């Protein structure tokens, strides 16, 4: 049976492992290399996720099947210049074999409720171009596109250079 709950310190190693799986899945996709270089959390991930768990403006949630954690999600509440609050889903991942059974929906529900309870005016989520499953998932849960980020690459592949 699928379930979802706020993450605890004992979940950090599993969340870090899932985050590495998520990045490996996204890396070969269009926009994945730049996402990894710009938006992905830096190693050591265990440290990054431990810090997030301690923040009151962040909800880290884990989803499970039969008490085995198979997914996680993170939402951060941002204070806008207008004084409004915006929730931003920065991470949402469920292992491929555990998809389409309600785990992702349960995680998203916990994240949305966290934002609603904190008075957010809305919640943003991100999908890479061409990642149709993620786009569809968000749309099925009431999300609509509000902006597109356009990128012009100069030369070679998308991977950033030093």
Description:
- The protein has a single domain, classed as Gcn5-related N-acetyltransferase (GNAT) (Aminopeptidase).
- It is built from five helices and five strands.
- It has a five-stranded mixed sheet with strand order 1-2-3-4-5, with helices on both faces.
- The relative contact order is 0.18.
- It has 162 residues and is an alpha+beta fold.
- The chain is 34% helix and 25% strand.
Briefly, what is this?
The protein has 162 residues and is α+β, with helices and mostly antiparallel strands.
Summed up, the helix count is 5
**SSE class:** alpha+beta
**Unreliable runs, pLDDT <50, ≥5 residues?**
none
Walk across the major sheet and give the strand order.
Answer: 1-2-3-4-5
CATH architectural name: 3-Layer(aba) Sandwich
Topology:
Blueprint: E1 2-6, H1 12-26, H2 32-38, H3 45-53, E2 58-65, E3 68-79, E4 85-94, H4 103-117, E5 120-124, H5 132-140
Parallel strand pairs: 4-5
Antiparallel strand pairs: 1-2, 2-3, 3-4
Helix pairs in contact: 1-3
């Amino acid at each position: 049976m699928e379930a979802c709950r706020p993450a605890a310190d004992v979940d950090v190693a599993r969340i870090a492992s899932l985050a590495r799986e998520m990045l490996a899945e996204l890396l070969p996709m269009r926009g994945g290399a730049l996402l990894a270089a710009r938006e992905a959390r830096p190693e050591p991930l265990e440290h990054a996720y431990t810090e997030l768990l301690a923040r009151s403006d962040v909800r880290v949630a884990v989803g499970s099947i039969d008490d085995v954690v198979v997914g996680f999600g993170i939402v951060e509440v941002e204070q806008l210049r207008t004084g409004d609050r915006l929730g931003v889903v920065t991470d949402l991942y469920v292992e491929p074999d555990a998809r389409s059974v309600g785990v992702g929906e349960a995680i998203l529900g916990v994240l949305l409720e966290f934002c609603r309870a904190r008075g957010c005016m809305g919640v943003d989520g991100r999908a890479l171009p061409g990642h149709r499953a993620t786009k569809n998932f968000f749309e099925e849960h009431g999300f609509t596109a509000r902006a597109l980020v356009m990128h012009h690459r100069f030369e070679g592949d998308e991977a950033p250079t030093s």
